[in-house]
Amino acid sequence: MVKKRPRRGTTRVPQKLKVKIGKLELENPVILASGTAGFGREIREFLDIERLGAIVTKTITLHKKEGNPPPRVVEAPWGLLNSIGLANGGIKDFMFEQVPFLESLRIPVIASISGDILDEFIKLAEEVSRVGCVRAIEVNLSCPNVIHKGTRLPLLAQDRTAVEKIVSTLRKTTEKTLIPKLSPNVTDIKEIAKAAEGAGCDAVSLVNTYPAMLVDIHTMRPRLGNVCGGLSGPCIKPLALKCVWDVHSAIDVPVIGMGGIMDADDAIEFILCGSSAVQVGTANFVNPSASLGILEGIEQYMAKKGIADIMDLVGAAKA
Amino acid sequence: MKQFKAKIISNRKIAPEHYILSFKRPEKERRIEPGQFFYVKISDSYRPLLRKPFSVHKISGYSIEILYKTIGEGTRALSKRKKGDILDMMGPLGKGFDAVRRHKKVMLVGGGHGVAPLYALAKQLEYPAVPAGRLSIFIGARTKDHIVCDKKFRRLGARVYIATDDGTRGHKGFVTDLLTRKILGSRDKDTGEGRGKGHTAIYACGPKEMLKSVWKVARRYGIPCQFSLEEYMACGIGTCLGCAVKTQSGYKLVCKDGPVFDAKEIVW
């Protein structure tokens, strides 16, 4: 006999999809990635956002950021190259304009923050920690499109000492679940992840975009206004998958995996490699309701395979 | 929902590199403004990955038309889609033209396939018929093969002025040469003065360089001007902040704040 799947919208699901990331409990492991859904306002017209696990906000900085000169996005083969430059209204705009809306959403909000120097990270963490619906903080240490004063290296996430210092300081600042977001563009991502774990984070998010560029052969100039940017989309999936695989075996805290997840199959690969939750990014641009399709696909896969608890899938791929 | 599956009614070639695709209108209730766009997923493959924006070319009770030129792999793939095929679309998106009917003269300026949204606008400005001499359209393109829709505008009662870079059709040179000549010609013959505020309006769409020179002409003669702008975009709904354009009040988004902007807002 074929088991009937419960109707949409019912709270009872055939399998256990709940995952726990630090203190953060998610109804399911599908999360909207930072910078790809703003603060949820626009995408809500296309997507029943409240059925997802969580939303990560656009990265918030202390002061308003105008962003980089256009063109800011350009299509790459199987991917998207962007250099937005963390354009956002700053912490005040977040607290007064975005929080009231986010409070109305019945899903956990993960606030993404980034700063130039340690002091900015502290101030931002203090502010967002006061917001009830903000259940976790994703610390963006890996945006390839801004310059940080906190390190001599291009990215904070490339500087082990900077990662340790920022994470350990924020650990003292906030009670909320702390999730540094790492860059794949490092010699050994395991080392950085271990440093973050040692400094007291609850989980790690990976990967951010890959530093990349494209050139227009007619004008003989870089295609992006800011010359270089970050590459995302299906072209980076196998690269990101390896990062998740490596980090999962190196640390004990949960890994939130992302990088070119376009459909449920991609998401399941990430889960099998050790992601306790997955973030959907570029796919939101291609299809704003992609994340829900991914969630439904994961449920179908589990039903087909007879898997009752999603945690049985996390890291289930064996060498 | 603003996302829907659209059935292609026809997809016909109108010039060597230009096509008009007609699809079934999603919901009759939804208002569609000239200048708004539909965001189309051309194929299920990852190449091209992103949707492509197309402004509304013609709106009717039953169907919507978009006009496009085969420029890259996306538009080339679109040209191969057949009648009956289903396209995943989002739209109508963005802010359209603010069509003011009180202007005595309306000048439309289109560069190549930039005429696409201007036709929908022309139809809306004066329905059912345009009084002779009220509406003029200036079409500029590289060669005669890139001049499209001139006959359609003529049928609407518009005066059509054509310029090509190579002189294969109409004036050899810039479309703004013709625009300037027309503006000067419409000035008061005795005093040489302009006809005052609110007399003429310009609506334009085309390459950035063309728009920039249209703006220079418009500013010199104090004529209000609205431009439909183009910029690379990813999400189409205002979340990714990719399609930024510099304005007097900071960066604005082509997909959400535009694609139509008042020309004096733009920082050139």
Keywords for this structure?
heterodimer, A: 319 residues, alpha/beta, TIM Barrel, 8-stranded parallel beta sheet, 8 helices, 16 strands, globular, B: 268 residues, Elongation Factor Tu (Ef-tu), domain 3, 2 domains, 15 strands
Notes on the protein architecture:
The complex is a heterodimer of chains A (319) and B (268). Chain A has 319 residues and is of the alpha/beta class. Chain A has a single domain (19-312), classed as Aldolase class I (TIM Barrel, Alpha-Beta Barrel). Chain A has helices spanning 90-104, 118-129, 160-173, 189-198, 237-250, 264-272, 283-286, 290-305, and strands at residues 19-21, 24-26, 30-32, 54-56, 73-76, 79-82, 109-113, 134-140, 177-181, 204-206, 210-212, 215-216, 221-222, 229-232, 255-257, 275-280. In chain A, the strands form 4 sheets. An 8-stranded parallel sheet of chain A has the order 9-8-7-4-3-16-15-10. Chain A has a 4-stranded antiparallel sheet with strand order 5-6-14-11, with no helix packed on it. The longest helix of chain A has 16 residues, at 290-305. The radius of gyration of chain A is 19 Å and the shape is globular. Chain A starts with 18 loop residues before the first strand and ends in a 14-residue tail after the last helix. Residues 9-13 of chain A have low confidence and may be disordered. Chain B has helices spanning 73-79, 115-125, 150-155, 175-185, 208-221, and strands at 3-15, 18-24, 37-41, 52-59, 63-69, 86-93, 105-111, 135-141, 159-164, 171-172, 200-205, 225-228, 244-247, 250-253, 260-262. In chain B, the strands form 3 sheets. Chain B has a 7-stranded mixed sheet, with helices on both faces. Chain B has a 6-stranded antiparallel barrel with strand order 1-2-5-4-3-6. In chain B, strands 13-14 form a two-stranded antiparallel ribbon. Helix content of chain B is 18%, strand content 34%. Chain B folds into 2 domains: 3-93, Elongation Factor Tu (Ef-tu), domain 3, CATH 2.40.30.10; 105-228, 3-Layer(aba) Sandwich (Rossmann fold), CATH 3.40.50. In chain B, strand 1 and strand 2 (18-24) form a beta hairpin. Chain B has 5 helices and 15 strands. The longest helix of chain B has 14 residues, at 208-221. The model of chain B has no long low-confidence stretch (mean pLDDT 90). Chain B is α/β, with parallel strands linked by helices and 268 residues long. The chains are: A alpha/beta (319), B alpha/beta (268). The interface between A and B is medium-sized, with 36 and 31 residues.
